[in-house]
User: What shape does this take?
Amino acid sequence: MRALVWDGTVARVVDREPPSTTAGMAVVEVRCAGICNTDLEIVRGYMGFHGTLGHEFVGDVVDGPAAWRGRRVVGEINFACGRCSTCARGLGRHCPARTVMGIVGADGALAERVAVPVANLHAVDDRIDDEEAVFTEPLAAAFAILEQVRVAPGTSALVFGDGKLGLLIAQVLQQAGARVLAVGKHEEKLALLRARGIATELLLAEAAGEADAGAAPRRGAWAGEPAELVVEATGSAEGFARAVRATRPRGTLVLKSTVAGLSSVHLAELVVHEITVVGSRCGLFEPALRALEDRSIDVRSLVSARLPLERAADALQAAAAPGALKVLVTR
Assistant: This one.
């Protein structure tokens, strides 16, 4: 079968042996897969992963338990052991023995077929088409914030980042009743949120007094009012410091970026302002699938390109281009 494989030096489509069914696993023929910022970080060295890339997909079960064969599905990406104390607490996403599809120790979905634990499968309703279903995993990551943080109606919320995840997060927080301001660097992306009644602001220049004395204003600083809830989803190493400055005393800062390499972190501001920092990663699929079924979250406008699997390496490059949103790989 064809698969987009990262060997530590180059990502290219190669022929690989298809996965076989083992106990507790199903084989899914991939209809459509999405390229995520995490995939881009992997080819910059994140997690030291080698193998088939990709973890956002929709497809048909072609081998495995009879009850699942022929069903159109999406799948959660964390392959937990199901036996440890962490799994017993319902935290299989944090199982210390887990592998992670296309990220840690398990081949991914930018391929003709992918093996997925049966326990991770979710059937896709006919009301959701393939190009919507492929957003289930990133949309679940956006909904994860509501699992971790109480968002009361009227909560002031800042979302930094106008990439795919930032655009989804802004919509999820608005749906939860927050007063959302989305801040990004791309007018055309922010316009997608304004069309849904979400306030936006371009991130342009550093506020007076924040720059070093005599320094020119720096693109990418934040000069607005601090918020109760701040979500950092820029995918940039410098985003953390900006997000800390934008969080109110005793506010909550949610970190969504996974960045390959080191970021300079100054903890004094967190301590002095008593800021709660929440790392946020994967989420439950059920709320994401419900939102896709009732179309309360817009995902279709986030698709910027579609390429066939044999051009998956080109799709990876397209996803890394400035201003790109979701690039899909189809069979």
User: Anything to note?
Assistant: The chain is about 25% helix and 30% strand. The first strand starts at residue 2 and ends at 6. Residues 236 and 259 are 6 Å apart (CA to CA).
